Structures
1.
Amino acid sequence: MHRPGSGEAVSFEEQFRQHYTFLCTVAYYIVEDEDAARDVVQDFFLYCWHKRHIIRITHDFKSYAARAVKNASLNYLRKSGKTQLEEIHVIEELTRYFPLEDKEEEEQRNRALWEAVFRLPEQRQRIFLMSNRDGLKYKDIAAVLDISVNTVKTQIKLALQFLRKECGWMARMISFLFFLSRW
């Protein structure tokens, strides 16, 4: 694979490491199933590996990959029979603008998400940020704050519920990224 404009070759492994989590998020946004999302992304990379001598990406790999994973996810929904045809059309319409390619839109959505995070009660916000921003495990958060692991779990659960209500699709991505970080 080549990095557009630079003539520089980029290793397949580097592309995988750079984009795997993001692509899983794209797939999860559509299929809403963690295992299926990972399967779709792994199938995409497997396809790329088999076609590595043929595929010529002239623009951004991330955009190409996101579009391919989005389409593969929609195909997964069609084939799985878990979703009605009308629902698939609605999902297709909702995903027309995903992934976020417009930096201004992305910044607006990030701002909206952070505003929602900062509306959480102080202790819940602190626990949520320690987990998601700082990457601490539940037991480490519990030790730092001198609270039980169950309290940490409950606060994270309540934070995610609030964010789902406030930010809809963004909270699903956070939940999935959170899941991936523990995987």
2.
Amino acid sequence: MAYEGVWRFTAPALDSSVPRARHAVRDLLARQGVPTHGDLLPSLLLIVSELVTNAVRHAALLSPEIAVEVSIGPDWVRVAVEDNHPYRPKALEADQGQTGGRGLLLVQAITAEAGGAYDVAHTASGGKAVWAALPFTPPAAAAPAHITNPHRAR
């Protein structure tokens, strides 16, 4: 496919990089002609926002620069955010009193709902890359268990 490939860009670990990364990914997918139907594009952009936000908030001290990588295959698109902080992030349980801290839970939920994959990988430089991959076609919706046979005798 013409849209397949890997693109990588870096950004400073600043709050202003969050919307910049989101726009860069959106523009790249449009420029490459990636088939982003349904919820795929909004889901990917939300994932990018959450992952870049986490890198900016939690890794900036050890990683003044972050990298965003977009990999596009024949059936999926993967976004990864890499920083030089060795700490492996964990999704926090929802706490009604907190206004933040649920970004990774959101990423995991979006990824699972789309039938994708999410993980954290260590990098050769001692940092980490947090990534999520979503398929172009969502999993088929399960048929409800209460389907009735329209041809059944009444």
3.
Amino acid sequence: MASLNVGNLGEYLREQRRSAQLSLRQLADAAGVSNPYLSQIERGLRKPSAEVLQQVAKALRISAETLYVRAGILDAERDRSEVETRAAVLADPTLTGRQKQVLLQIYESFRKENGFGSAEDGEATPGDPVDAPGGAPAAGTAGDSDSDSGPRRTAG
């Protein structure tokens, strides 16, 4: 039995695929998933993993977070500001892929520190500032004024 969110996800994916003028087979090939599996997702019969949604989003050139919300992986109201922040970082053409990844890791570590992050949706890794012993900021974070070797920070 398909949940309402999965059905909405399927309808949304179908609309996005048609807007991109892709056949089901073309999207399946571009996303690296099977044609029957993608068809089942579109019809609301399957709930894809976050990884599959990310692959489909990349193939459609849309935000993976949007698909996560549609699939019920992210709570639309609670996580709206997080989704918008992540989308803004990911959409910035002046940043490299590595810079975007690092920014998102730092962002998630601060959210966790403040009690809002979750282990399953973040990409924070050990060594993030929240993991510093004694609650002290980790090297290279705001509040680290003893070192001049790190990147320069500007107010703002």
4.
Amino acid sequence: MNRKVIALDIGQVCVQVRGELCFAKLGYRSAAEVPRELFVLNDEMEKGRLTADEYFERFRELTGSELDKEAMLEAFCSIIAAPVPGMSELVARLPEHGIRPVFFSNTSCLHLERVRQIFAGAAAVPEGVYSFEVGAMKPESAIYEAFEQRYGRPALYVDDRPDLIAAARERGWEAHCFNGAADLEKTLRNRLLVHCN
């Protein structure tokens, strides 16, 4: 086991995910108005089963939207809002302390590109295991297996969703439910015996 690798979820851990921003740009007032088929379509995109062009074409077919590709791309990526306070700075410091952060996320290639644009700490995280590459989403076992094959069990896995934490713990992973950058820094000091200031 590589004791210095940590697996970092992206959404609500590194960057804020705000569905309402995306929905508004698509013409919906709330998630309740969004057709269920669009959430299924999003999952297909995040599993790498659709290219961006295929996704947007299917989106138009389902909704009758007349948005051009550029407007649709902006709407789709606007769900990636801003960095979670303190996380960019914390993640950027991890390599100095012998910690190798690796992204571990259910995401699409388009959303990952947006994350790398707005999350300055991403420069310290060149590697990752992503649902769109693996073809499976957490909590499916295939994505955890893909991480283990590439990096072994991480010293720590950080996510905001208790169900995904539970799935990791069933595999014997050390896992921490994210509750802000300060809490994570404290956890890293306690579990990995490093000082991240």
